[in-house]
Amino acid sequence: MSDAAAPAPLSDDEVRALDAHWRAANYLAVGQIYLLGNPLLTEPLRPEHVKPRLLGHWGTSPGLNLVHTHLNRVIRARDLDAMCVWGPGHGGPAVLANSWIEGSYTETYPDITRDAEGMGKLFKQFSFPGGVPSHVAPETPGSIHEGGELGYALSHAYGAAFDNPGLVVACVIGDGEAETGPLAASWHANKFLDPVHDGAVLPILHLNGYKIANPTVLARLSEDELDELLRGYGHDPVHVSGDDPLQVHQAMAAALDTALDRIAAFQHAARDGRDAGLPTEATEPGGADARETGGAGRRPRWPVIVLRTPKGWTGPATVDGLPVGGTWRSHQVPLSEVRTNPVHLRQLDEWLRSYRPQELFDAQGRPREQVLAYVPHGDRRLGSNPHTNGGLLLRELPVPDLDKYAAPVDRPGTTMHEPTHVLGELLEQVMADTAERRDFRLVGPDETASNRLQAVYGATGKAWQAKTLPVDENLDPHGRVMEILSEHTCQGWLEGYLLTGRHGLFSCYEAFVHIVDSMVNQHIKWLRTTRRLPWRRPLASLNYLLTSHVWRQDHNGFSHQDPGFIDHILNKAPEVVRVYLPPDVNTLLSVADHALRSRDYVNVIVAGKQPCFDWLDMDAARAHCARGAGIWDWAGTEDGQHEPDVVLACAGDVPTLEVMAAAQLVRRHLPQLAVRVVNVVDLARLLPKEEHPHGMSDAEYDALFTPDKPVIFAYHGYPWLIHRLAYRRRGHANLHVRGYKEIGTTTTPFDMVVRNDLDRYRLVMDVIDRVPGLSVTAAPVRQLMEDARLRHHDWIRINGTDLPEVAEWTWER
Fold first, then answer.
1. Residues 808, 607, 426, CA angle at the centre, nearest 5°?
2. Half-sphere exposure (Cβ direction) of 173: Cα atoms closer than 13 Å
3. Which of 211, 518, 625, 772 has the fewest CB atoms lying closer than 10 Å?
4. pLDDT above 70 for 296
């Protein structure tokens, strides 16, 4: 355990100034929760001055205000480039109050002036129809983290710090948030923080003892046990505790000075190639030998501040005879009947006046000089730091010319490549071209090589600051590939990185990206909101590469087979989400090029890592991806003079292979049929244009799929999604979709499609079943297809491999 004792104490004047700022922020936080009028209490408080619906959360606000007040002091004293991630849920009143005091709120929203009129508007808008949320939301200047869903603050903070060597990222972690799995995993992020090229993260664990209705685990641990936990995570704790404001101000100032001095010493030492002389992993009892550690030789024990203050500090001690201050009852609205209960109204009046607002604001409602004594200026203010509006700092990503990586395609369906392997070669060049500026990262849960992206190691290694052994490969203290077996942490890192103005890609097994379903929800909501805020600048898109997908989990089996992330994404805001299913390597390159250059989207790309047929040359791939869906006239049997008899449609690499094989079988066995082959890369194209920016008009859709002919659609994921996307189309009754039916096991690649009725033989049977007149005349062909399926069943159980006619198939026109 470390205590904050070394720095000199504050003078009485300094303490009074800090306390004035803190009291002002507390007053404004309470006012936002309660007041509809009379913001400066210039007249006795009456029921009509109080909001009819009391919404918001008080319990965490005084602690957050304390942190903001003291961050102001050190930022100004040290000229720090600093930002803060506010983790506790519903901390909006505190952060809004502080941004109003410092002036950044008025600069962002000029109608919320820094005077009595503006204070009144600030109060009224909070959790009010047409106003602002109770969280630290996108509307809040200086925020990159939505405080509604808990667990992601620390990973966001580290993402912001990566490749920002001059930045200090404070991160307030509520003790409720500290109980979540994502937060627990993110403590390990310090093993990936490079003191040479990255900034610093200063976690502030705020223990106020309670959640909504229960005590919190960490607050009930003894100090020794908590220290053991935090030291086990690799941190050096600095403690601040108490309920006497003047003493806590002294302790908090000392703690921040101690922590920042240590951070500066570690960084200077690492950047100068020397030992900082402070506690490190290598100097602890039982610690690793310096030769076995990353970084400059010894991984720092970065400081963490443990702040213990009462829940609802400075609020009502009791209400209706029950204890409130310091208990879970102060979590939300301590006085809930102010408009109808005169006792509650009197208590609210006393509570607000206890902050002595006349000392804090002048007659016009402007903060007095003492309140502003330690507020930083300009971009140094927490509400104005440009890193918190990352689009201001974003630069174009240098994506190389795709032709250098394109697969040559003389004849479709005769050569094969591993699509993600080729993409890895392109990403290697992106890594090389961003080596100096360091603004691109690849993240994933221990799967970069498994997903065939290992070419990137030619340009950069895997970030790693912990112990290394001689057998390790590609570990690099300065690397920009991030791997940790926590999808939550990967997602949080990348979100924090993007939100502060950089670029990246998240590579993941398709089945397990579901782990971050809730996180991507929040990011999509963030992007949708920021699109409506003109002061928020566009960000690089959040890009997913989902591979090791449902159809090629030959060795892992059923547990690794789930294509449902696509369904989840396409339920979200249409102006933000995009889903791409490139059928081969060149379409993957084209889609990736588009995604990496795009802004303010969540792009989901599903592509295989196994050898896959090359269908389109690079020029054709570009054109096809630009259309999003199109006819492959070379694959069908249309004559251009008559409507097709049937449409074979596909989306995804394996479904495309099966449709192409089915088209070839139809050509051979049913030559009288006019077959149209349609491939869909961009799933949103199936939606009406009124529902999605990429959607097709009814006329476009009918021209592609026909309004009245059978459409046999082979789809990568759950078949009902295609029905949902196309249910309003005229030809929906003729649409028959084959896809994954939650039938999986460890088996051969072709057996997976047979088990789910997506195979070429089943597709030919569907053609016969649905084209009028064929059910009788083509019965022998249908039986031939059924026999092939039975033959496949027997073959794989004897030989363990797919039928030669399947395994050795190539496209022939």
1. 105
2. 29
3. 772
4. no
Which domains are assigned to the chain? 2-376 (3.40.50.970), 402-612 (3.40.50.970), 629-807 (3.40.50.920)
- Residue 286: predicted pLDDT: 47
Q: How many CB atoms within 10 Å of residue 563?
A: 23
Average pLDDT over residues 41-56: 95
Give pLDDT, residue 551. 78
- In whole angstroms, what is the distance from residue 608 CA to residue 5 CA? 57
Q: Which three-class secondary structure state does DSSP give residue 323?
A: strand
- Secondary structure letter of residue 297 according to DSSP: S
Spatial strand order of the sheet with 2-3 comes to 2-3, 235-241, 302-308, 200-207, 167-174, 81-86
pLDDT digits (tens, 9 = 90+) for 747-756: 899 999 999 9
Which residue do the tokens 């039975």 mark? 790
Inter-CA distances, 776 with 82, 246, 408, 542, 773, Å: 76, 92, 43, 52, 7
For residue 241, the SS3 value is strand
Handedness of CA 587, 590, 592, 594 (dihedral sign): negative
Tokens of 806: 């399947």
Band (7; pLDDT cuts 50, 70, 90) = low
Count of Cβ atoms closer than 10 Å to residue 631 Cβ: 20
Average pLDDT, the chain: 94
Structural tokens at position 340: 């109808």
Q: Tokens standing for 756?
A: 């789910």
Strands 612-613 and 602-606: unpaired
